[in-house]
Amino acid sequence: MDKNKDIFGTAIKAFYEEKDKTDIIVHSPDFEDDVILVEYLFRKFEDMPEVEQKALELCEGKVLDVGCGAGSHALFLQQNKKLQVKAIDTSAGAIEIATKRGVENAVSEDFFKLKDEKFDTILMLMNGSGIIGKLKNLKSFFDHSRTLLTERGKILMDSSDLIYLFEDEFEDPENYFGEFQYSISYKEWHSEDFDWLFISPDLLTEYAESNGFNCEIIHQGDNYDFLAELSVQKK
After folding, report:
1. What does the alpha-carbon distance between residue 173 and residue 18 come to, in Å, rounded to a whole number?
2. Which overall architecture, per CATH, does domain 48-178+198-232 show?
3. Band (88; pLDDT cuts 50, 70, 90)
């Protein structure tokens, strides 16, 4: 099997071009397999969870949509809020389809390699904290984000507090319960393992403040999910 296959892009293209509804399967040593419905990646605003709707409503100015997938968030911001959006994803296939769907500025790019641009809003949804990978990477994340934000810019990020899955409440940075390793598969293709971070509101606030950012919890959902607004502290 080709471990470097663009799984998300392949699935998104197959659904868009052939109406192929084959699921993406999520694997983890910590949980039973889960599925991502490819159709869900094409959802409209009214079908999005409240945490995403709230985030889109709060977007302002020039927006960076991180991990844009098939482009659903970017399209809403373009069409309904008339905002300038740059949509990025490491999946070339996803970017191809996002462009075909009408996203005006969709680029296959890694957030952590982005430079020489400034945004008023950085949008990170569908557990946007996930790409940070581990708690130890949060300082690098905040340092890099600072270079991409305008003076009054903000990050809108969602995540989930997974403490409810564990009997013992602990937040040990050496063994944090929100750090996971996943892989995904689609048809005959299987990805390499990758790190994925879920973070609690309190811990995100703590790390934000220690790295020169303000953190305001804007919305909390019914399933331990939440939306945070992060902005650089004024000197």
Report:
1. 45
2. 3-Layer(aba) Sandwich (3.40)
3. very high
